[in-house]
What does this fold into?
Amino acid sequence: MRIDVVSKPSFKSEDFQCEPWFGSHYTEEDVSPSLIDLWKDHPEIDVSLHLPEKNEFIPTDFSICSDGLDTIDTASPRCILDEPLVKFWYKLDST
It folds into this structure.
């Protein structure tokens, strides 16, 4: 099970590891077995929490949009847009 926490001010800088591709700092903590048990069999499950319906408008064939990026096979993602408010990374999924 994996849970990502974006920010936790109580962490000390030496607690962090560095993700190799994007340079993001992160830390890992174990989830207690009692908390996992509570999640598995919670007494008050909110029925409004459910997976969404399948989105029929999500495309699956991107071949007509190819601009040559899919022909470059790299071992790690590469930044293809780097602006002050956005960074966009690309890596071909060859699995």
